[in-house]
From TrEMBL:
Domain of life, source organism: Eukaryota
Name of the protein described by the UniProt record: Uncharacterized protein
GO biological process, one term: carbohydrate metabolic process
Upper lineage: Eukaryota, Fungi, Dikarya, Basidiomycota, Ustilaginomycotina
Originating organism: Malassezia globosa (strain ATCC MYA-4612 / CBS 7966)
GO MF annotations in UniProt: hydrolase activity, hydrolyzing O-glycosyl compounds
Xref: InterPro entries: 6-hairpin_glycosidase_sf, 6hp_glycosidase-like_sf, Glyco_hydro_8
Family under the similarity heading: Belongs to the glycosyl hydrolase 8 (cellulase D) family.
Keywords: Glycosidase, Hydrolase
One of the Pfam families matching this protein, by short name: Glyco_hydro_8
Length: 360
């Protein structure tokens, strides 16, 4: 575990005059982009759960330097040829999951380091956690359906925007964080609202077992309408033609939902998790395809990734299937290094160890 952590830090952590960040563009596919809020959330979770306060403070400083007018992290940061960091106008919006993870890390930091540090006084972590989780409530939660919005950019000023507004991304179903916010936020009204978000999102997840009773799989994007409730999107909804399948967003859902079960013991989600695991263990396991058809569990890709294997391994672990968990652990070594899968793998490992103290 320590070797994995040190390797991840040496590969992905970078320093700048604005603070520390997680470099996510090793492939060069994103031009001169160097990080995104998703990566920053992973890095802050890793730092606090591993007990590295120096790195955590550096990451927190970076977050504070790249908040938008809503108090949420701008979703992408770039570096120009002279080495200066900047943000394009269309990247000033947030992406919900990154801010959820950052707020989670801040609440955990208040637990782990209640006396603060030389950079942040006692109570500062908790203050920032409450402020960020309130910004999420104000700008990233559907006002009527009470589930996560895709980001603070969602609006209803056109038919197309209404379609996106009335949808949700399953990788944002971070129920263990919603439960944490409900229990740890200092404001009773905010605690009540986070309980509402938790219950609404939990019910959306559970409802997908009725949509796909054979597999229990959840699509990348779900769309709501008054007649049919929540159902998988059709074709390209926001990112790709696989938005209505288990692709590069929903690959995280087994981990996110399993972690909620691990910290809460909520039996309501167990049938969904059991069905999901049975399907995924039949999907060429442990080489879980990097894309799975939700109606029948058939692979949509002929390759795998740590981003798909590690969440299935953790789901097996949370449900007490130690043999499948160890099979997944061994399979992780066969995959190529890359930011997304490596980061998910390490966050899962840190969260698994932290689960008993998650709500302390």
């Amino acid at each position: 575990m320590e070797a994995k952590y040190r390797q991840w830090c040496s590969t992905y952590m970078r320093s700048s005059p604005s603070g520390l960040y997680c470099f996510y563009n090793g492939s060069g596919d994103n031009g001169d982009a160097v990080t995104c809020s998703e990566a920053h959330g992973y890095a802050m979770l890793i730092a606090v759960l591993h007990g590295n306060q120096v790195d955590f403070d550096g990451l927190l400083t970076f977050f504070l330097n790249f908040r938008n007018e809503h108090g949420l992290m701008m979703w992408q940061v770039r570096m120009n040829q002279s080495g200066a960091l900047y943000v394009e106008e269309d990247a000033r919006d947030c992406a919900t999951d990154g801010d959820i993870d950052i707020a989670t890390a801040l609440f955990q930091a208040q637990r782990v380091w209640p006396n603060g540090s030389s950079n942040f006084p006692a109570g500062a972590y908790g203050y920032e956690a409450a402020a960020l989780s309130d910004a999420l409530l104000a700008h990233c939660v559907h006002p009527e359906l009470h589930v996560p919005l895709l980001g603070d950019w969602c609006c209803t000023d056109s038919k197309e925007n209404r379609r996106l507004h009335d949808s949700t991304r399953s990788s944002d179903f971070i129920l263990s964080s919603f439960l944490l916010f409900h229990m740890k936020h200092p404001n009773p009204e905010s605690r009540q609202r986070w309980q509402q978000v938790l219950e609404a999102t939990l019910q959306v997840a559970i409802s997908q077992l009725d949509v796909n009773p054979r597999t229990g799989l959840i699509a990348d994007f779900l769309v709501h309408d008054k007649r049919h409730g929540w159902h998988p999107s059709k074709g390209k909804h926001l990112e790709s033609k696989y938005d209505g399948e288990m692709s590069w967003n929903a690959c995280r859902t087994p981990w996110r939902l399993a972690h909620y079960y691990a910290v809460s013991g909520d039996q309501r989600i167990l049938p969904l998790l059991q069905t999901m695991l049975k399907t995924l263990l039949n999907a060429n396991f442990p080489a879980v395809p990097a894309g799975i058809r939700i109606r029948d569990g058939k692979g949509l890709a002929d390759y795998s990734s740590r981003a798909f294997i590690a969440p299935v391994g953790y789901l097996a672990y949370a449900l007490g299937d130690g043999a499948s968990h160890m099979t997944a652990i061994r399979a992780l070594d066969d995959e190529e290094d890359e930011y997304f899968g490596d980061s998910i793998d390490l966050v899962i490992a840190e969260e698994a160890m932290a689960a008993p103290m998650w709500l302390a």
